[in-house]
Hints:
The structure holds 2 protein chains of 2 kinds. Chain A is mostly helical.
Amino acid sequence: MKCEDLLALLNEYVDGTVDPAICDEFEKHMAGCNPCQVVVDNIRKTITLYKEGKPYELPIPFRDRLHAALREHWKASHPCDQKANGEPR
Amino acid sequence: MSEPINDAELVRQAKAGELAAFEELTRRYERQVYSLAFRIVRQEHDAEDVTQEAFLSAMEYLAGFREEARFSTWLMRIATHAALKVLRKRRGLDTVSLEASTEPDPEGAIPHPEYIADWRQSPEELVHRNEIRRLLEEALDRLDEKHRLVFLLRDVEGLSVRETAEALGLSEVNVKVRLLRARLQLRERLTRVFGDPARALAHGHHIER
């Protein structure tokens, strides 16, 4: 396996969906190729950073509007439902 | 403290007419939906519209949600559709699909990693710092839209390749190609910032092997 081949299989390797036989070859190549090892490690860290990053907070006025709109819509679509009379918070 | 009710149970209650259950689902996922919307449309006002539309649609179609996927996945797909609609409207291409999904990506060979170096810090050390957060958003912004969309759904939201393909109207092969490019580009940018120059590996060394 060459560096180019490894690059083409990066997704599958990082996601753990690579065929076991190919996985062995992949790891054999990495054991002898420091740059490829580092690239794989960099990619994993990149994904982790984004995955673990905190989401944005909603602007408070928007959050209130959103919840009010949802309650209103709910009441309109559940006209006979007592439970739909959500009390304003 | 009582155990938090799981999503599936809340979905069941909401389907049975409990507004409180739907509101709890909204509270659980509103930040995630808003973040996804913001990262796709890149504008606060549009992100708010997309978020509201996503939850209203979810409410409307909840009865038809067959629970084959997780609620969060289903919701993120709805939010993605709403966000793509905004992008199309901006381009005045309301009736044309965002990109012809049947066309293979007209992209050549995979770009080679150029700057290769171990990072000085772990993601765990980096993730909570505000300036890092800005940097991550900037790197994301600099991706082409088609790469950014795939990365957001697959790696940030955790959709499968197939779910990402369905949400974007792309083939799975296309998703994989775009995902690889997105990951490589982000790796390149982040490593230039977080990489340890003292431990950088020569570009040429890598190519020649």
